[in-house]
Amino acid sequence: MILTSSGVEVEHDRRRELKAFDDSKSGVKGLVDAGITKIPPMFVYPSTFRVPLVDLDGINDSATLRAKIIDQVREACENWGFFQAVNHGIPASVLEEMIDGIRGFHEQDTQVKKEFYKRDFKEKVSYFSNFDLCQATVATWKDCLSWAMAPSPPDPTELPAVCRYGCTLFELLSEALGLDVNRLKDMECAEMIFHAELTLGARRHTDSGFLTVLLQDQVGGLQVLHQNQWIDASPMPGALVINVGDSLQVITNDRFKSIEHSVLVNRVSPWQLYSPIKDLVTQENPPKYKEATLHAHVAYLRGKRV
């Protein structure tokens, strides 16, 4: 039979691949044992179900290119709540050293780490297991290393260029909302608390802060809930995963979505009265949240998802 339609050819190849896999009776373990080096197409989600990728290369070189990148960020935050960013200006060696440093801390002797173990979170640096250990119905299999950046973090202008990535992100998010480029930075959204944690089997959750910047090692493990399906955010060399937190959803009046996800790997993530930004509220789009503390907003959002 001669196939003239490329769409028919693709469907035919998929049926043949599915039949061959089923006839082997060896499952995915059989594929691994056979030494495959690439995941077969039948297991790969279509592009509409992959976490969006945003290339930041040349973002300050061209107004046209910057506008295109802002559109990509807007679409990702409104529809996914997640995106992966590449060409962000942070050298690969710095990212590798960050992973090595976090892993090195957690792999130290227990007696060494005990000096930092805290439960009151009043210290600038603290090590703990499950921040909600006594409140959660089920404990999460994870340890965390936390260091405070508020209320007196360093001025961004005092930081090396490679450390200003968070400021760039908030500029892009502000412009994606149609606001002044410095609007979110001026609200001190970035000056919260940052965590670095070794996570194994973290239950599904949303992040309570404004923005999370996640550095994955090549083991991966992050899954994002999109259209009622769990989608793998496969690790990409040099990429950083960005996700919207509950607080950013509040001040954008639900324009940007804080999405449920589960984490299985190392994480680096950022965490005053808050309400939707006035410029984003109109008669047609009234405020969906009253002015309240961050904790109150987070409790409300999480209560809706129960």
UniProtKB/TrEMBL annotation:
Instruction: Classify the source by domain of life.
Output: Eukaryota
Whether Ribonucleoprotein counts among this entry's keywords is no
**Short name of any one Pfam family annotated for the protein:** DIOX_N
| Keyword line | Iron, Metal-binding, Oxidoreductase
- Residue ranges annotated for the Fe2OG dioxygenase domain, each copy included: 175-306
Q: Which GO terms describe its molecular function?
A: dioxygenase activity; metal ion binding
The similarity comment for this entry is: Belongs to the iron/ascorbate-dependent oxidoreductase family.
Q: Give the protein's recorded name.
A: Fe2OG dioxygenase domain-containing protein
Species per Swiss-Prot/TrEMBL record? Vitis rotundifolia
